Amino acid sequence: MIKAVRGVRDILPSEARRWQRVEAAARQVFEAYGYAEIRVPLFERTELFARGIGDETDIVKKEMYTFEDRGGDSLTLRPEATAGVLRAYIEHGFHVEPKPVRLYTLGPMFRYERPQAGRYRQFHQANIEALGETHPALDAEVIALLMDFFEHLGFKERLALHINSIGDAGTRPAYIARLVEYLTPHRAELCPECQVRLERNPLRVLDCKTPGCQPIIEKAPSILDSLSSDATRHFDSVRRCLEAMGISYAVDPRLVRGLDYYVRTTFEVRTTELGAQNAVAGGGRYDGLIAQLGGPPDPGIGFAIGLERVVLLLGEEHRSRALSAFLIPLGEAPLLRLMPIARALRQAGVSTELAFGDRKLQRELDRANRVGVRYAVIVGDSELEQGQAIIRDMKSRQQRSEALDDLPELFRRLAAEQPLDDERPTR
Ligand code: AMP
Fold this sequence. Notes:
- The protein is of the alpha+beta class.
- The chain contains 15 helices and 16 strands.
- Strand 12, helix 12 (about 330-345) and strand 13 form a beta-alpha-beta unit.
- The structure holds adenosine monophosphate.
- Adenosine monophosphate (AMP) binds near residues 80, 120, 282 and 304.
- Adenosine monophosphate (AMP) binds near residues 258, 280 and 309.
Protein backbone atom coordinates (compact mmCIF):
# COMPACT_ATOMS: atom_id res chain seq x y z
CA MET A 1 0.00 0.00 0.00
CA ILE A 2 1.29 3.44 -0.90
CA LYS A 3 0.79 5.84 1.99
CA ALA A 4 0.90 9.62 2.20
CA VAL A 5 4.37 11.13 2.62
CA ARG A 6 5.56 11.73 6.20
CA GLY A 7 4.37 15.07 7.57
CA VAL A 8 1.57 15.59 5.07
CA ARG A 9 -2.04 14.66 5.64
CA ASP A 10 -5.38 14.28 3.98
CA ILE A 11 -8.21 16.56 5.01
CA LEU A 12 -11.04 14.05 5.05
CA PRO A 13 -14.71 14.94 4.46
CA SER A 14 -15.38 14.62 8.20
CA GLU A 15 -13.01 17.55 8.75
CA ALA A 16 -13.56 19.51 5.56
CA ARG A 17 -16.63 21.34 6.87
CA ARG A 18 -14.55 22.88 9.64
CA TRP A 19 -11.98 23.97 7.05
CA GLN A 20 -14.71 25.56 4.99
CA ARG A 21 -15.94 27.47 8.04
CA VAL A 22 -12.47 28.71 8.87
CA GLU A 23 -11.77 29.77 5.29
CA ALA A 24 -15.16 31.47 4.97
CA ALA A 25 -14.51 33.36 8.23
CA ALA A 26 -11.13 34.52 6.89
CA ARG A 27 -12.61 35.75 3.62
CA GLN A 28 -15.47 37.50 5.33
CA VAL A 29 -13.36 39.33 7.89
CA PHE A 30 -10.53 40.18 5.47
CA GLU A 31 -12.95 41.55 2.91
CA ALA A 32 -14.72 43.64 5.56
CA TYR A 33 -11.36 45.36 6.08
CA GLY A 34 -10.99 46.00 2.35
CA TYR A 35 -8.52 43.22 1.47
CA ALA A 36 -8.65 41.71 -2.03
CA GLU A 37 -7.67 38.13 -2.76
CA ILE A 38 -4.49 37.35 -4.68
CA ARG A 39 -3.47 33.79 -5.62
CA VAL A 40 0.22 33.31 -6.20
CA PRO A 41 2.00 30.15 -7.44
CA LEU A 42 2.93 27.29 -5.14
CA PHE A 43 6.51 27.40 -6.40
CA GLU A 44 8.92 30.19 -7.24
CA ARG A 45 12.58 30.62 -8.07
CA THR A 46 14.65 29.55 -5.06
CA GLU A 47 16.43 32.89 -5.15
CA LEU A 48 13.20 34.72 -4.24
CA PHE A 49 12.95 32.94 -0.88
CA ALA A 50 16.69 33.07 -0.20
CA ARG A 51 16.62 36.85 -0.70
CA GLY A 52 13.19 37.46 0.78
CA ILE A 53 13.31 35.33 3.93
CA GLY A 54 17.03 35.52 4.69
CA ASP A 55 19.90 33.08 4.17
CA GLU A 56 20.45 32.57 7.88
CA THR A 57 16.88 31.67 8.80
CA ASP A 58 15.92 28.09 9.71
CA ILE A 59 13.48 28.12 6.82
CA VAL A 60 16.03 28.84 4.12
CA LYS A 61 18.86 26.87 5.69
CA LYS A 62 17.12 23.62 6.38
CA GLU A 63 13.41 23.59 5.65
CA MET A 64 12.91 24.34 1.97
CA TYR A 65 11.68 21.87 -0.61
CA THR A 66 14.06 22.83 -3.37
CA PHE A 67 14.42 21.00 -6.66
CA GLU A 68 15.86 21.47 -10.09
CA ASP A 69 13.26 21.35 -12.85
CA ARG A 70 13.87 19.76 -16.24
CA GLY A 71 15.17 23.02 -17.62
CA GLY A 72 17.83 23.20 -14.89
CA ASP A 73 16.21 26.05 -12.90
CA SER A 74 16.30 25.86 -9.12
CA LEU A 75 12.74 26.09 -7.84
CA THR A 76 11.28 25.91 -4.32
CA LEU A 77 7.83 25.05 -2.99
CA ARG A 78 6.75 28.16 -1.12
CA PRO A 79 7.53 27.97 2.62
CA GLU A 80 5.52 31.16 3.25
CA ALA A 81 3.38 33.54 1.23
CA THR A 82 4.87 36.99 1.69
CA ALA A 83 7.78 36.64 -0.74
CA GLY A 84 5.50 35.48 -3.55
CA VAL A 85 2.90 38.18 -2.90
CA LEU A 86 5.59 40.87 -2.91
CA ARG A 87 7.09 39.48 -6.10
CA ALA A 88 3.63 39.77 -7.71
CA TYR A 89 3.21 43.29 -6.28
CA ILE A 90 6.45 44.37 -7.93
CA GLU A 91 5.94 42.41 -11.16
CA HIS A 92 2.44 43.79 -11.79
CA GLY A 93 3.23 47.37 -10.78
CA PHE A 94 0.79 47.44 -7.84
CA HIS A 95 2.80 50.26 -6.29
CA VAL A 96 1.03 52.81 -8.53
CA GLU A 97 -2.30 51.96 -6.89
CA PRO A 98 -3.68 53.96 -3.96
CA LYS A 99 -1.83 52.99 -0.78
CA PRO A 100 -2.05 50.97 1.28
CA VAL A 101 -2.60 48.09 -1.13
CA ARG A 102 -4.41 45.41 0.89
CA LEU A 103 -4.03 41.79 -0.26
CA TYR A 104 -4.88 38.39 1.20
CA THR A 105 -4.21 34.84 0.16
CA LEU A 106 -5.12 31.37 1.46
CA GLY A 107 -3.32 28.15 0.67
CA PRO A 108 -0.72 25.48 1.41
CA MET A 109 2.90 26.12 2.44
CA PHE A 110 5.74 23.60 2.53
CA ARG A 111 8.51 23.26 5.12
CA TYR A 112 10.77 20.31 5.83
CA GLU A 113 10.25 20.41 9.60
CA ARG A 114 10.11 17.60 12.13
CA PRO A 115 6.45 16.54 12.03
CA GLN A 116 4.45 16.44 15.27
CA ALA A 117 0.94 17.29 16.43
CA GLY A 118 0.10 20.68 14.92
CA ARG A 119 3.26 20.76 12.80
CA TYR A 120 3.30 19.42 9.27
CA ARG A 121 5.41 19.56 6.14
CA GLN A 122 2.49 20.72 4.06
CA PHE A 123 0.32 23.09 6.07
CA HIS A 124 -2.06 25.90 5.30
CA GLN A 125 -2.03 29.58 6.05
CA ALA A 126 -4.30 32.57 5.64
CA ASN A 127 -2.09 35.60 4.94
CA ILE A 128 -2.67 39.29 4.66
CA GLU A 129 -0.24 41.94 3.44
CA ALA A 130 -0.84 45.71 3.67
CA LEU A 131 1.65 47.49 1.44
CA GLY A 132 2.88 51.03 0.92
CA GLU A 133 2.10 52.72 4.25
CA THR A 134 4.12 53.21 7.45
CA HIS A 135 1.48 54.72 9.73
CA PRO A 136 1.31 52.93 13.10
CA ALA A 137 -2.50 53.00 12.89
CA LEU A 138 -2.13 50.50 10.04
CA ASP A 139 -0.18 48.14 12.32
CA ALA A 140 -3.03 48.37 14.84
CA GLU A 141 -5.64 47.86 12.13
CA VAL A 142 -3.87 44.72 10.90
CA ILE A 143 -3.74 43.36 14.46
CA ALA A 144 -7.43 44.24 14.99
CA LEU A 145 -8.26 42.36 11.81
CA LEU A 146 -6.39 39.31 13.08
CA MET A 147 -8.20 39.41 16.41
CA ASP A 148 -11.55 39.89 14.67
CA PHE A 149 -10.94 36.73 12.68
CA PHE A 150 -10.52 34.79 15.92
CA GLU A 151 -13.47 36.54 17.52
CA HIS A 152 -15.61 35.65 14.53
CA LEU A 153 -14.87 31.98 15.27
CA GLY A 154 -15.70 32.46 18.95
CA PHE A 155 -12.12 32.07 20.25
CA LYS A 156 -11.73 35.38 22.01
CA GLU A 157 -11.01 34.07 25.52
CA ARG A 158 -8.83 31.20 24.38
CA LEU A 159 -6.06 33.24 22.78
CA ALA A 160 -3.55 35.83 23.87
CA LEU A 161 -2.01 38.58 21.75
CA HIS A 162 1.69 39.30 22.23
CA ILE A 163 3.37 42.30 20.66
CA ASN A 164 6.89 43.69 20.50
CA SER A 165 9.02 46.12 18.56
CA ILE A 166 12.33 44.88 17.26
CA GLY A 167 13.45 48.33 16.14
CA ASP A 168 14.77 49.56 12.85
CA ALA A 169 17.32 47.90 10.62
CA GLY A 170 19.61 50.85 11.44
CA THR A 171 19.56 50.53 15.22
CA ARG A 172 19.24 46.78 15.57
CA PRO A 173 22.96 46.04 15.08
CA ALA A 174 23.73 48.00 18.28
CA TYR A 175 21.25 45.86 20.21
CA ILE A 176 22.57 42.67 18.67
CA ALA A 177 26.07 43.67 19.75
CA ARG A 178 24.81 44.17 23.35
CA LEU A 179 23.03 40.84 23.22
CA VAL A 180 26.13 39.01 21.96
CA GLU A 181 28.21 40.68 24.64
CA TYR A 182 25.75 39.45 27.28
CA LEU A 183 25.39 35.94 25.86
CA THR A 184 29.04 35.14 25.09
CA PRO A 185 30.10 34.43 28.72
CA HIS A 186 27.09 32.02 28.96
CA ARG A 187 27.91 30.30 25.71
CA ALA A 188 28.69 26.89 27.23
CA GLU A 189 25.35 26.85 29.11
CA LEU A 190 23.30 27.41 25.94
CA CYS A 191 21.79 24.54 23.96
CA PRO A 192 23.84 23.45 20.90
CA GLU A 193 21.41 25.19 18.54
CA CYS A 194 21.68 28.47 20.42
CA GLN A 195 25.46 28.21 20.30
CA VAL A 196 25.16 28.22 16.52
CA ARG A 197 22.56 31.01 16.63
CA LEU A 198 24.90 33.08 18.74
CA GLU A 199 27.31 33.05 15.80
CA ARG A 200 24.86 33.36 12.96
CA ASN A 201 21.59 34.93 14.11
CA PRO A 202 21.84 35.95 17.78
CA LEU A 203 18.32 37.47 17.95
CA ARG A 204 16.87 33.98 17.50
CA VAL A 205 18.37 32.90 20.82
CA LEU A 206 15.61 35.00 22.41
CA ASP A 207 12.82 32.75 21.18
CA CYS A 208 14.52 29.43 21.97
CA LYS A 209 12.13 27.10 23.80
CA THR A 210 14.77 24.84 25.41
CA PRO A 211 14.30 24.90 29.23
CA GLY A 212 18.05 25.14 29.92
CA CYS A 213 18.31 28.39 27.95
CA GLN A 214 15.44 30.13 29.75
CA PRO A 215 17.26 31.48 32.84
CA ILE A 216 19.89 33.03 30.56
CA ILE A 217 17.35 34.51 28.14
CA GLU A 218 15.29 35.97 30.97
CA LYS A 219 18.18 38.15 32.09
CA ALA A 220 19.13 39.29 28.57
CA PRO A 221 18.99 43.02 27.82
CA SER A 222 15.56 44.03 26.47
CA ILE A 223 15.38 45.13 22.88
CA LEU A 224 12.83 47.75 23.94
CA ASP A 225 15.58 49.64 25.78
CA SER A 226 17.58 49.92 22.55
CA LEU A 227 14.93 51.31 20.22
CA SER A 228 15.54 54.52 18.32
CA SER A 229 13.24 57.38 19.32
CA ASP A 230 11.38 56.93 16.03
CA ALA A 231 10.80 53.25 16.68
CA THR A 232 9.71 53.97 20.26
CA ARG A 233 7.22 56.59 19.05
CA HIS A 234 5.88 54.17 16.46
CA PHE A 235 5.45 51.40 19.02
CA ASP A 236 3.78 53.71 21.55
CA SER A 237 1.36 54.83 18.88
CA VAL A 238 0.50 51.23 17.92
CA ARG A 239 -0.22 50.55 21.60
CA ARG A 240 -2.45 53.62 21.93
CA CYS A 241 -4.41 52.58 18.83
CA LEU A 242 -4.89 49.05 20.20
CA GLU A 243 -6.05 50.46 23.52
CA ALA A 244 -8.49 52.79 21.74
CA MET A 245 -10.06 49.69 20.20
CA GLY A 246 -10.14 47.83 23.51
CA ILE A 247 -7.74 45.14 22.27
CA SER A 248 -5.77 43.65 25.14
CA TYR A 249 -2.19 42.56 24.59
CA ALA A 250 0.99 41.65 26.41
CA VAL A 251 4.30 43.23 25.47
CA ASP A 252 6.88 40.50 25.02
CA PRO A 253 10.39 41.87 24.38
CA ARG A 254 11.54 38.36 23.40
CA LEU A 255 9.15 38.12 20.47
CA VAL A 256 11.58 38.37 17.54
CA ARG A 257 9.98 35.82 15.13
CA GLY A 258 11.80 33.47 12.84
CA LEU A 259 12.14 35.56 9.71
CA ASP A 260 14.88 38.08 9.04
CA TYR A 261 12.76 40.67 7.35
CA TYR A 262 10.81 42.07 10.30
CA VAL A 263 11.35 45.61 11.61
CA ARG A 264 9.49 47.55 14.30
CA THR A 265 6.17 45.90 15.15
CA THR A 266 6.03 42.12 15.55
CA PHE A 267 3.11 40.18 17.00
CA GLU A 268 1.95 36.68 17.67
CA VAL A 269 -1.30 35.07 18.81
CA ARG A 270 -0.85 32.12 21.16
CA THR A 271 -3.02 29.54 22.83
CA THR A 272 -2.39 27.38 25.85
CA GLU A 273 -4.44 24.54 24.37
CA LEU A 274 -2.16 23.01 21.74
CA GLY A 275 0.92 22.02 23.74
CA ALA A 276 4.26 22.97 22.24
CA GLN A 277 2.77 24.31 19.01
CA ASN A 278 1.24 27.29 20.75
CA ALA A 279 1.57 29.93 18.02
CA VAL A 280 -1.60 30.22 16.00
CA ALA A 281 -0.69 33.31 14.01
CA GLY A 282 2.20 35.71 13.70
CA GLY A 283 3.36 38.66 11.72
CA GLY A 284 5.02 42.01 11.67
CA ARG A 285 6.20 44.99 9.73
CA TYR A 286 8.73 44.48 6.93
CA ASP A 287 9.65 47.92 5.60
CA GLY A 288 12.60 47.47 3.25
CA LEU A 289 11.70 43.99 2.03
CA ILE A 290 10.02 45.14 -1.18
CA ALA A 291 13.14 47.13 -2.09
CA GLN A 292 15.32 44.15 -1.18
CA LEU A 293 13.37 42.10 -3.72
CA GLY A 294 14.08 44.66 -6.43
CA GLY A 295 10.93 46.76 -6.05
CA PRO A 296 10.19 50.33 -4.97
CA PRO A 297 11.00 51.45 -1.40
CA ASP A 298 7.48 50.66 -0.20
CA PRO A 299 6.95 49.55 3.39
CA GLY A 300 4.67 46.67 4.36
CA ILE A 301 3.11 44.74 7.19
CA GLY A 302 1.38 41.36 7.27
CA PHE A 303 0.62 38.18 9.14
CA ALA A 304 0.05 34.47 8.64
CA ILE A 305 -2.52 32.36 10.47
CA GLY A 306 -1.77 28.63 10.79
CA LEU A 307 -5.05 27.09 9.68
CA GLU A 308 -4.36 23.53 10.93
CA ARG A 309 -4.09 24.95 14.43
CA VAL A 310 -7.27 26.98 14.05
CA VAL A 311 -9.14 23.89 12.87
CA LEU A 312 -7.76 21.94 15.85
CA LEU A 313 -9.06 24.65 18.18
CA LEU A 314 -12.50 24.46 16.60
CA GLY A 315 -12.73 20.88 17.82
CA GLU A 316 -15.39 18.38 16.90
CA GLU A 317 -18.60 19.74 15.56
CA HIS A 318 -22.00 18.17 15.70
CA ARG A 319 -22.38 15.70 12.94
CA SER A 320 -23.78 17.55 10.04
CA ARG A 321 -26.84 16.36 8.20
CA ALA A 322 -25.33 16.88 4.83
CA LEU A 323 -28.21 15.66 2.71
CA SER A 324 -31.62 17.23 2.78
CA ALA A 325 -33.62 14.61 0.91
CA PHE A 326 -33.14 10.89 0.45
CA LEU A 327 -35.51 9.51 -2.18
CA ILE A 328 -36.37 5.82 -1.83
CA PRO A 329 -38.13 4.20 -4.79
CA LEU A 330 -39.36 0.67 -4.16
CA GLY A 331 -38.96 -0.90 -7.60
CA GLU A 332 -38.16 0.17 -11.13
CA ALA A 333 -41.31 2.16 -11.99
CA PRO A 334 -41.04 4.38 -8.88
CA LEU A 335 -37.32 4.81 -9.69
CA LEU A 336 -38.12 6.15 -13.15
CA ARG A 337 -40.72 8.51 -11.69
CA LEU A 338 -38.31 9.80 -9.03
CA MET A 339 -35.30 10.31 -11.31
CA PRO A 340 -36.50 13.60 -12.85
CA ILE A 341 -37.78 14.75 -9.44
CA ALA A 342 -34.35 14.13 -7.89
CA ARG A 343 -32.82 16.15 -10.69
CA ALA A 344 -35.28 19.02 -10.18
CA LEU A 345 -34.53 19.06 -6.43
CA ARG A 346 -30.78 19.19 -7.05
CA GLN A 347 -31.22 21.96 -9.60
CA ALA A 348 -33.15 23.87 -6.94
CA GLY A 349 -30.18 23.48 -4.61
CA VAL A 350 -31.67 20.80 -2.34
CA SER A 351 -28.94 18.21 -1.70
CA THR A 352 -30.53 14.93 -2.65
CA GLU A 353 -29.67 11.26 -2.85
CA LEU A 354 -31.74 8.85 -4.92
CA ALA A 355 -31.64 5.13 -4.04
CA PHE A 356 -31.78 2.61 -6.88
CA GLY A 357 -35.02 0.84 -6.03
CA ASP A 358 -33.49 -2.62 -5.63
CA ARG A 359 -33.26 -2.94 -1.85
CA LYS A 360 -35.60 -3.41 1.09
CA LEU A 361 -37.07 -0.24 2.60
CA GLN A 362 -35.49 -0.88 6.00
CA ARG A 363 -31.99 -1.05 4.51
CA GLU A 364 -32.52 2.23 2.72
CA LEU A 365 -33.84 3.90 5.88
CA ASP A 366 -30.75 2.68 7.74
CA ARG A 367 -28.59 4.21 5.06
CA ALA A 368 -30.59 7.45 5.20
CA ASN A 369 -29.87 7.60 8.92
CA ARG A 370 -26.19 6.85 8.48
CA VAL A 371 -25.59 9.52 5.88
CA GLY A 372 -27.48 11.91 8.12
CA VAL A 373 -30.45 12.98 6.07
CA ARG A 374 -33.31 15.06 7.38
CA TYR A 375 -36.16 13.76 5.19
CA ALA A 376 -36.72 10.46 3.42
CA VAL A 377 -39.19 10.30 0.55
CA ILE A 378 -40.66 6.83 -0.03
CA VAL A 379 -42.48 5.83 -3.21
CA GLY A 380 -43.76 2.27 -3.85
CA ASP A 381 -46.13 1.07 -6.55
CA SER A 382 -49.29 2.06 -4.66
CA GLU A 383 -48.00 5.61 -3.98
CA LEU A 384 -47.04 5.83 -7.63
CA GLU A 385 -50.57 4.93 -8.68
CA GLN A 386 -51.98 7.72 -6.51
CA GLY A 387 -49.30 10.22 -7.55
CA GLN A 388 -48.25 10.48 -3.90
CA ALA A 389 -45.05 10.14 -1.86
CA ILE A 390 -44.51 9.41 1.82
CA ILE A 391 -42.36 12.07 3.50
CA ARG A 392 -40.63 10.78 6.60
CA ASP A 393 -38.98 13.17 9.02
CA MET A 394 -35.92 11.16 10.09
CA LYS A 395 -35.60 13.05 13.35
CA SER A 396 -39.19 12.82 14.64
CA ARG A 397 -40.00 9.68 12.59
CA GLN A 398 -43.35 11.23 11.62
CA GLN A 399 -44.72 10.47 8.20
CA ARG A 400 -47.13 12.22 5.93
CA SER A 401 -48.32 12.04 2.32
CA GLU A 402 -47.60 14.64 -0.35
CA ALA A 403 -48.29 14.88 -4.08
CA LEU A 404 -45.23 13.83 -6.13
CA ASP A 405 -45.57 16.89 -8.34
CA ASP A 406 -45.33 19.16 -5.30
CA LEU A 407 -42.00 17.80 -4.02
CA PRO A 408 -39.66 20.45 -5.46
CA GLU A 409 -41.88 23.21 -4.11
CA LEU A 410 -42.26 21.48 -0.75
CA PHE A 411 -38.51 21.14 -0.28
CA ARG A 412 -37.94 24.74 -1.29
CA ARG A 413 -40.38 25.74 1.42
CA LEU A 414 -38.85 23.45 4.04
CA ALA A 415 -35.41 24.81 3.26
CA ALA A 416 -36.66 28.36 3.75
CA GLU A 417 -38.48 27.54 7.03
CA GLN A 418 -35.60 25.95 8.86
CA PRO A 419 -32.05 25.07 8.04
CA LEU A 420 -32.11 21.50 6.81
CA ASP A 421 -28.52 21.27 7.81
CA ASP A 422 -28.50 21.13 11.59
CA GLU A 423 -24.81 21.78 12.05
CA ARG A 424 -24.22 24.04 15.00
CA PRO A 425 -20.98 25.87 15.67
CA THR A 426 -19.16 24.62 18.74
CA ARG A 427 -17.81 27.31 20.94
P1 AMP B 1 5.37 31.73 10.24
O1 AMP B 1 5.11 31.81 8.75
O2 AMP B 1 6.53 30.84 10.59
O3 AMP B 1 5.39 33.07 10.89
O4 AMP B 1 4.12 30.95 10.85
C1 AMP B 1 2.84 31.52 10.96
C2 AMP B 1 1.90 30.49 11.53
O5 AMP B 1 1.82 29.38 10.64
C3 AMP B 1 2.38 29.89 12.83
O6 AMP B 1 1.97 30.67 13.92
C4 AMP B 1 1.71 28.53 12.84
O7 AMP B 1 0.39 28.65 13.31
C5 AMP B 1 1.67 28.18 11.37
N1 AMP B 1 2.75 27.23 11.02
C6 AMP B 1 4.04 27.49 10.77
N2 AMP B 1 4.73 26.38 10.45
C7 AMP B 1 3.83 25.35 10.52
C8 AMP B 1 3.90 23.93 10.30
N3 AMP B 1 5.04 23.33 9.94
N4 AMP B 1 2.77 23.20 10.46
C9 AMP B 1 1.61 23.79 10.83
N5 AMP B 1 1.47 25.11 11.03
C10 AMP B 1 2.57 25.89 10.89
